[in-house]
Amino acid sequence: FQKDLSNGRHRWTVKHRYSDFHDLHEKLAAEKKVDRRLLPPKKILGKNSKSLVERRQKELELYLQTLLLQFPQATPTALACFLHFHLYEINGITAALAEELFHKGEQLLQAGEVFCLRPLQLYSVSQQLRLAKPTCCNGDARTDLGHILDFTCRLRYLKVSRGLVGSSNIQESSLPFDLSVFKSLLHIQISDCSSEQIEGLSTLRTSLETMNVHQSTQSMMSVLVPEAAEFPQWEPEGAESVCPVTALVPVWRQLTTLDLSHNGISCIDTSVRLIPKVEFLDLSSNQLFSVENLQHLYNLVHVDLSYNNLQVVEAAHTRLGNIKTLNLAGNQLQNLSGLSKLYSLVNLDLSQNQLDQLEEIRNIGSLPCLEKLSLAANPMCIIPDYRTKVLAQFGDRAAEVCLDSRVTTEKELDTVEVLKAIQKAKEVKHRMSSGDKKVDPRRQEGRPSRQGGSPSVLLVFY
Q1: pTM higher than 0.85 for the full model?
Q2: Closest CA to 250 of 278, 230, 225
Q3: How many CB atoms lie within 10 A of CB 437?
């Protein structure tokens, strides 16, 4: 048996064998006193003939229509599950979620685990709250919407991501949902959604500590300042402004970790002014061409800008301040001069860039706190004795630097000392040759200088 069902704009297909109908009928007969003679009998002879299959299809469809007419107010749970209301229909989805939380909600809250919801579920809850209907539609107290609201008010860790839509035509990326029902969230992760369908995110500004948003947005502004669509001019609450503004936007008071990796973000816009307490910022796997506005984040410690389109990072210390970890892997960097004043930097990942000149390492060789450096998969890595030549740029700190996740060996340190001695000799020779060039060339030829006099004579005794 196959039947197409719909709930307004959403459609789905239900497929069942006769045995499934038999099981359903037994439950309804026992629980709802449905007439046992209502279900068409099973026939053996000629069961595969086309005419019999078509007649059986019509009889079973009539059976379902009769059941739905028999329960116009509240569809029995067994029948709702049979028709996949709990997967695709708003009332069925919320009822199933409410019953799940009735049984497990308190246990989940006490365990402090991340709870996963789909946009379709959140959409259904949002739609139910907008309807002037009882919070319990089928008369079963276990499916009351109140169980969901109580749970969402106390939930601390939430993950929202799309799932399989089965046989339906539902496009979860187009379903708006409201997050304002979550009053105590500390952590949220949103994946494979559209920032345009997310409502109520700004209501989390007072409590949220960690926010991860992936494959969902083209700009930081749409996540951090959704009000910007209504107020073209705005300022962070408490900021001093010399020009008139149309809105004062509250800051994210508790947010310390922001992960916006794997999106389509092309610039770091001024919305970062609303996240002054952020310490961990991940903007990897986006489309950034420059590093801007991060000077507003005074507490920034760890920054991930890997796998973007960065070709140069100029005067990084003016934007990245006192960071300890910087990941620039997978970009197109050729020059490191902009990193020369990151004096607090401890970990630096420059792997998979376009660095081909060992001289560029001198720009970071004097960083006093640098301990871990990755240069793997750069053109310079094919240079003979690459490791020791890089470590030599760190002078007396060579032993303290872990290059490409490998601890420096004693043999390498010995080679580094030799390279340092050679380099020092070259520098002395260069200074001496530079000094000779400053001597009057006529003195070197034994001719009188401008002041006159005889050339000096050097006597050597053996």
Answers
A1: no
A2: 225
A3: 8
Sequence-ordered list of residues with C-beta below 8 angstroms from that of 371, at least 6 positions apart, any chain: 346, 347, 400, 401, 402
Distances (CA, A) of 340 to 167, 361, 364: 57, 10, 5
Domain boundaries in the chain? 2-83, 87-216, 328-434
* C-beta separation of 192 from 168 below 8 A: no
Please name the CATH architecture into which domain 2-83 falls. Answer: 2-Layer Sandwich (3.30)
Which tokens is 87 given?
């997967």
Q: What would the 3-class secondary structure string for the chain be? A: CEEEEEECCEEEEEECCHHHHHHHHHHHHHHCCCCHHHCCCCCCCCCCCHHHHHHHHHHHHHHHHHHHHHCCCCCCHHHHHHCCHHHHCHHHHHHHHHHHHHHHHHHHHHHCCCEEECHHHHHHHHHHHHCCCCCCCCCCHHHCHHHHHHHHHHCCEEEEECCCCCCCCCCHHHCCEECCCCCCCCEEEEECCCHHHEECHHHHCCCCCEEEEECCCCCCHHHHCHHHHCCCCCEECCCCCCCCCCCEECCCCCCCEEECCCCCCCCCCHHHHHCCCCCEEECCCCCCCCCCCHHHCCCCCEEECCCCCCCCCCCCHHHHCCCCEEECCCCCCCCCHHHCCCCCCCEEECCCCCCCCHHHHHHHHCCCCCCEEECCCCHHHHCCCHHHHHHHCCHHHHHHCEECCECCCHHHHHHHHHHHHHHHHHHHHHHHHHHHHCCCHHHHCCCCCCCCCCCCCCCCCC
Tell me the CA distances in angstroms from 42 to 17, 19, 65, 406, one per residue in order: 11, 9, 19, 73
Q: Residue 367: CB partners within 8 Å, gap ≥ 6? A: 339, 340, 342, 343, 345
Output the six-digit token pair for 163.
Answer: 């799932």
Architecture, CATH, for domain 328-434: Alpha-Beta Horseshoe (3.80)
Instruction: Give the residue among 344, 398, 352 at the shortest CA–CA distance from 375.
Output: 352
Q: What is the C-alpha separation between 195 and 219, in angstroms, rounded?
A: 9
Q: Which residues contact 429 (CB under 8 A, 6 or more apart)?
A: none
pLDDT means over runs of 10, the chain (462 residues): 77 84 84 81 65 80 83 78 82 90 93 93 90 63 89 96 81 89 96 92 95 95 87 78 75 97 96 96 97 93 97 91 94 95 96 95 94 96 93 91 93 85 73 63 47 40 32
